[in-house]
Amino acid sequence: MHGTGRQFIQYRDAFAGFGRWNRCIVLCPLFPVGVRGDGDRSGFKRLVEGDIHYDNVLLDMVSEVGERYGKRFEKFALFGYSGGGQFVNRFAYVHPERLWAATIGAPGNVTLLDASKDWWLGVGGFERQFGKPFDLAALRQVPVQMVVGRADLETWEITVRDDSPMYLPGINDAGRTRPERLRALKASFEAAGIAVRFDELENIAHSGLQVVEVVQDFFAQRLRTMRTGA
Questions:
Q1: Which own/partner pairs from 45-50 qualify as long-range (CB within 8 Å, at least 24 positions apart)?
Q2: Kind and range of the H or E element at 199?
Q3: What SS3 state is found at 203?
Q4: Model's pTM, two decimal places?
Q5: How far apart are CA 53 and CA 34, in angstroms?
Q6: Residue 216, Cα to own-chain centre: how many angstroms?
Q7: How high is the pLDDT of residue 230?
Q8: What is the C-alpha separation between 192 and 200, in angstroms, rounded?
Q9: Burial classification of residue 90, based on how many CB atoms lie within 10 Å of its CB (0-12 exposed, 13-18 middle, 19 or more buried)
Q10: What CATH fold (topology level) applies to the domain 8-228?
Q11: Residue ranges per structural domain of the chain
Q12: pLDDT of residue 229
């Protein structure tokens, strides 16, 4: 899943070899900017924008690919970085039963596994938002990786000011930088009984293409486990 910059073609190319050698279909969606006429680039990150549910749009894309190739993809792996990492964070909460692995990469804002915080800072009011209860047991079955560069320390893009339309009380409380916020997300997962592979990479700032190799290693390990029945 692309981020705010929508580098979907670059991710497609970066995963092409992985798809070939691991016998996978690689899908790199594109969600356009400003679909409601407001120029908003970030609606997809929170899954719901007006009457658009981007999680369901993605599931429809997966179904369409399956129909094209005569396959059924009841489960798939999902990787997203930056804004895409936000998407994966929240998609995993809403549809854990559809994932055989999830990688959350360097999200600017996180949704913690904290029922005392309202959606989308936490999972409070989840059923009201999505029309179904939050399924923690299913989420515990999803292998999760979190990845961020140790040098990803710029805060200008992720600090939400109180005059922003995105502002919610407590939106900046998870940490100042992306590594701090991702560590807070990891802690909330582990407190809920969800194991996390946490990769904090040296000498990498905010660059999704530089973490692809580590993500592919995680996915390849999960594929081997599934295919051998281990």
A1: 45/4, 45/83, 45/84, 45/86, 45/87, 45/90, 45/109, 46/86, 46/90, 46/120, 47/87, 47/90, 47/91, 47/94, 48/129
A2: strand 196-201
A3: coil
A4: 0.97
A5: 14
A6: 15
A7: 67
A8: 21
A9: buried
A10: Rossmann fold (3.40.50)
A11: 8-228
A12: 85
